[in-house]
Amino acid sequence: MRLQCEAEVVHRQVPGLRGRASRALLSLGRARGSGAVCLLLCTARDRAGARYGLRDNVERFFTRFVEEGKATVRLREPPVDLCLSKANASNLKAFLSAVRLAHQGTDIGALPLSALVPAKTSEVEKPKTKMIITSRRDYPLTKNFPYSLEHLQASYCKLARIDTRVLCLKKLRKLDLSHNHIKQLPATIGDLTCLQELNLHDNHLESFSGALCNSTLQKSLQFLDLSQNKIKALPIQFCQLRELVNLKLDDNELIRLPFKIGQLDHLRFLSAARNKLPFLPSDFRKLCLENLDLFGNPFEQPNPLVPNIQLKIPLTLLECAARATVNHRIPYGCHLLPAHLCEDLEVAKNCQCGNACLSSFIQITVTMNLHHVAHTVVLVDNMGGTEAPIICYFCSLDCYSQFLDRYLQGKR
Question: What is the value of pTM for the model shown?
Answer without folding.
Answer: 0.71
